[in-house]
Amino acid sequence: MQLPCVLPRVILLLGLLLTSALSADPVQTVEIRAASDNTLCLFGQRGKPLEVTNRHVSRFRVVPGITDEKLVSLELVGSKGCFVRHKDWLIHAHDQPKQSPGFNADATFRMIGDPDKGVRFEPSNIRGAFIAVRRDGAVILEKDAAPEKSTFILKKTQ
């Protein structure tokens, strides 16, 4: 009596499990909070400038940068293809056009620092400028922004 050979099936199954584990999505979903006051969160709506508020919170996916995978882009959760980008020194949540190198550069950032202790976001195309919070709650791009206005804590979410 011969038993069916299950070894090839086991090897195939292990290979599939290993492949799916290695290709697991490295993307993190976070709330972005002001390091100076963690009750203040970035809030974004598709097509509008971001604001900082203690009444609403948005979640963002930290994904590999659109123009450089070593950098990051921030996609608004619940709005697929809607990315944080700078335009006219304001920070917006805009849909990514099909072919727009300018948009892609405006939506790619160097994340400088430790996500648990505080990070700053410097656009890939403007050195020395950082996403910062203005006193009126506007989220802006500011050249040589003071760290207390431009440092954020990334709170991981589900």
Question: In a few lines, what is going on in this structure?
Answer:
By secondary structure, the chain is of the alpha+beta class. The protein has three helices and twelve strands, in the order H-E-E-E-E-E-E-E-H-E-E-E-E-H-E.
Structural description of this entry:
With 158 residues, the protein is of the alpha+beta class. The chain has a single domain, classed as Trefoil (Acidic Fibroblast Growth Factor, subunit A) (Trefoil), CATH 2.80.10.50. The chain has three helices and twelve strands; from the N terminus they run αβββββββαββββαβ. The protein has helices at residues 7-22, 101-106, 147-150; strands at 28-34, 37-43, 51-53, 59-64, 72-76, 82-87, 90-95, 109-114, 118-123, 129-133, 139-143, 152-156. The strands form four sheets. Strands 1, 2, 3, 4, 5 and 12 form a six-stranded antiparallel β-sheet that branches. A two-stranded antiparallel sheet has the order 6-7. Strands 8-9 form a two-stranded antiparallel sheet. Strand 1 (28-34) and strand 2 form a beta hairpin. It is globular, with a radius of gyration of 20 Å. Residues 1-25 have low confidence and may be disordered.
